[in-house]
Fold this protein.
Amino acid sequence: MKPLSMMLSVLVIGFTSSTVMAEGASLSSASLPNVSPANSDLVNRGAYIARAADCMACHREDYTGGVALETPMGKIYATNITPSKRYGIGNYTEADLKKALKEGRAPNHMLYPAMPYPSYNGMKDEDISALFAYLQTVPVVDEAPDYETDLPFPFNFRSLMLGWNMLNVPSTESREGLTQTQQHGEYLVNNLAHCGTCHTPRNSTMGFDNDNYLSGAQLGTWYAPNITPDKSSGIGNWSEQDIVTYLRTGELDQRVFAGGPMGEVVSHSTRYLKDTDLNAIASYLKTVPVVQTDDKVHPVNASRLTAPLNESITHDLLAQKDYLAQAKAEVQGGSNSPEALYLAACGSCHGVDGYGQPDARYAPIVGLSSIRREKPDGLINVILHGVDGATNTSPKMPGFSEELSSEQIAGISNYVRVKFGSLNSSDVNAADVERVATTGADQPFLIKYAGLLAILGIIVAIVIIIFIVRAIIRSRRHS
Ligand code: HEC
Ligand code: HEC
Ligand code: HEC
């Protein structure tokens, strides 16, 4: 869909030589796996395209598939795309791969759009050729994934996707008036990296709601925030360099962390991209039409932000342990007060003062954007389900949905938002926690009622047929 003369010049040259420079320390000089001087330039370029298009997010690092995608229609499992003739795509020609990527047609069946072909629809032929050459070199695994997709009626009729595709593919259009760099960024964002599959809300047919392009969408229990350049609810205050740093390292100034699905995007894909490509993405994101949503990010109120207790405590795990014990002993308001709950459930990692334990890679949470949002949903989700960050190697944050009541989670959320987020006030309640715990359950109308609609459709069709038959019989009688 996108003219892309730059793509070649940008991508062809040596992925092997790590020109990738990390801004943050944690992921410095990530070199691209699967790239080897023994392989042809075409194959190495294909390996890079696979990273940029994040095939591994769903087909796994070894391409054996099996990752389940939760959709409103049910679970859809990614398939084996190693060159196995029996279980993978060993019999594919390049034309077959092109059809699968651009039209969602496998040789014998239609694919579900859980495979992001509505975005890959705009992929350049030379990128598909490179990807094809690369996928031939992937080790064969003669095994099917553990689970097979089995959607309920009527979605088990894959040919229904023909109708869906007419409405929703291609999923985006290229905009006029962009510089070459921005056009390249647009191609990466819309087609290869398919950012909109998570960040653009869906319309009633589950296609992209392009009037609200990249303005944020619910993603199961996670929320993919507004990444349009709106200053209050989007990333309008981020510099281009901020965007690059975030995509490269999964964090920004210890104020924003890429958790959950975004953590995976960073760890499988964007951290491997070349500076030129990340810069192009950042430059393009700055040109996207501004959409303001009601999920405002409250600015940091520096005067209200807690200061670190003292450097030696923040950096010394043992000193911190003692300090935590002391704080727990002195806490006011009983063991069910928000502060006591915070100290008991969160303090051992994030510290009494919220500055964590940086040397042990326990994250600081003071001033984080996720606790400064108007909607507490992201924070509640993190407390309920835990977080598995892109850059986080040591203890993952556990979820507390079993240990803590909704009331208690609400109390901790308010405490964290006011004390560490510098908000003036916060009124999260148990009902908010329960709502977040059950989101993902409300589906767009058509999907929810599709089974019903399909049955109604069949009944209507039968009624029409009966009428026609009766009319024919009557006209015969009359004649
Ligand atoms: C967001 C998840 C996701 C990403 C990213 C993704 N895929 Fe898929 N892919 C799937 C799912 C799910 C299926 C199975 C769809 C179905 O059953 O209809 C699939 C199916 C396929 C198929 C069809 C295999 C067959 O059954 O014949 C091919 C080929 C394929 N993917 C290649 C790729 C390539 C190459 C990339 C990267 C450019 C990629 N996919 C990225 C989820 C994904
Ligand atoms: C698989 C879904 C998914 C995809 C694909 C995805 N994102 Fe995200 N993104 C998320 C989620 C979820 C978050 C929130 C993470 C959190 O709160 O820890 C997020 C957060 C972000 C943020 C931080 C916003 C803020 O205000 O904190 C930026 C910037 C971002 N994504 C950019 C991108 C770009 C650019 C792409 C494409 C290269 C992309 N994302 C692709 C799911 C996704
Ligand atoms: C076992 C240690 C541990 C405990 C206990 C813990 N956390 Fe975390 N938390 C972490 C780590 C590690 C991260 C950073 C994950 C990453 O790298 O993205 C994190 C991240 C966060 C974030 C940022 C998420 C984002 O995407 O912006 C918030 C907010 C948070 N924790 C709050 C809490 C609260 C509130 C509690 C108590 C209910 C708690 N944590 C308990 C380890 C912990």
Q: What stands out?
A: The beta strands are 68-71, 74-77, 217-219, 222-224, 251-252, 256-257. Residues 257, 259, 263, 345-346, 348-350, 362-363, 365, 368, 370-371, 379, 382-383, 387, 389, 391-392, 395, 397-398, 400, 412, 416 surround heme C (ligand 3) (CB under 6 Å).
